[in-house]
Amino acid sequence: MAMALLDQIRSIFDGDPGVRKVADDPVLSAELLMLFRMILADGSVSESEMVVFRRICKEAFGIAETSIDSVIEYLNDYGYETNGSQAIALFRDLDVERRKLLARHMAEIAKADSKLAESEVKLLRRTLDLLDISPVDLVKPES
Questions:
Q1: Whole-angstrom distance, CA of residue 49 vs CA of residue 81
Q2: What is the DSSP string of 30-57?
Q3: Cα atoms in the Cβ-side hemisphere of radius 13 Å centred on 5
Q4: With b meaning 16 or more CB within 10 Å and e meaning fewer, what string describes 76-113?
Q5: Rounded to an integer, what distance in angstroms lies between the CA atom of residue 112 and that of residue 39?
Q6: d(C-alpha 11, C-alpha 85), whole Å
Q7: Mean pLDDT score of the chain, rounded to an integer?
Q8: How crowded is residue 8: how many other Cβ atoms within 10 Å of its Cβ?
Q9: This model's pTM is above 0.85
Q10: 8 Å CB contact between 17 and 64
């Protein structure tokens, strides 16, 4: 209990730890922005897409559940400064497994609502092209 209280006090002075993590890592910020763009690609935000986004934030990036709403708010406030091409540019120099991970996360979100809209397919196809990733890599098991 004392640690939780200390964390809350630290959060007041230092800001949310999840937001700090995202703000301090341009690649993570870019990936979350790309995932958010996939959520918005079909023109609506479904609950199932947000569930997948939250799970990815927690499991893949170690962002605490309590920080995710603040991270989303941060992305909304500051994400307009980065367009999709700029976000993708950060990934071009990363190893192929890291690029595949972004593509897999985007595909997970696109499929989350059980409706694959044409706009989602176009965004995913364009991202795969820019990342030099084959669509086959999305269905192959990770090695």
A1: 23
A2: HHHHHHHHHHHTTSS--HHHHHHHHHHH
A3: 2
A4: eeebeebeeeebbebbeeeeeeebbbbbbbbbbbbebb
A5: 9
A6: 33
A7: 84
A8: 9
A9: no
A10: yes
Nearest-CA neighbor of 64 among 21, 128, 121? 21
pLDDT, tens digit, for every residue of 21-37?
Answer: 998 888 898 899 999 88
User: Tokens 């023109």 correspond to what residue?
Assistant: 43
Q: How far, in Å, CA of 24 to CA of 29, rounded?
A: 8
Nearest one of 34, 63, 66, 39 to 51, comparing CA atoms: 39
pLDDT in tens, 91-138: 877 889 989 999 999 999 999 988 889 999 999 999 999 888 998 887
Q: Is 62 left (phi over 0), alpha (psi -120 to 50) or beta?
A: left
Question: Two tokens at 92?
Answer: 């071009």
Confidence class for position 3, pLDDT limits 50, 70, 90: low
Amino acid at 34: M
Unique residue bearing structure tokens 């706009």? 119
Q: Is the pLDDT of residue 16 over 60?
A: yes
Could you tell me what percent of the chain has a pLDDT over 90?
A: 43
pLDDT of residue 13: 47
